[in-house]
Amino acid sequence: MRLTATASVFALSLMLAACGSHDGGGDPVKRIDPASLEVKDQEAQEPDAILRVDEVVLRNPDLSTLARAIKAAELGAALAADKPMTVFAPDNSAFDKLGVDALADLLLPENKARLAAVLSYHIIPGRLTAAELRKQIGDKGGSIELTTLQGEKINASIELDQVRLSDAGGDVGSIQQADLAASNGMVHVIGQVLEPQQ
Fold first, then answer.
1. C-alpha dihedral over 182, 179, 166, 113, to 10 degrees?
2. CATH T-level fold of 53-190
């Protein structure tokens, strides 16, 4: 019995050795380093912080109308700038609330200055995460004013655990999706187009 077991082990060893060698015929067996798999997984999970704000908007299907508006207003370069910024980005449903005719009118070339003012009213200098925004609101007693790139202010408050932004006319938009990170800032998706007084 012991001789038979020894012979079997020897035969198995020869078979494994033959499989491990490569004589040029067929494909060699490729060994995968588990460490290389871990690196690939980490790379796949890296945030899109290498994208600029304009690219974050362009790649989000819920912001396709905003992307059209940015192009019509020729604001792409401003959103690609190296200066840190926070953008409150109205989603497609927010633009739908304006109505088809009003939106079409806003996108006309002769209304480019007005459109640029509206879009700039959604941009805050400096990079603010949702947590930082909430902290600032809390530290100031529940409401703060944010000066926009357009020059006028918007009001930020918290209601029913949602960050709400109010424009000059009292229209309110809540943050629907927060902290879309970009290399030059932060994008928060909101459900309302905010409009300045001028």
1. 20
2. FAS1 domain (2.30.180)
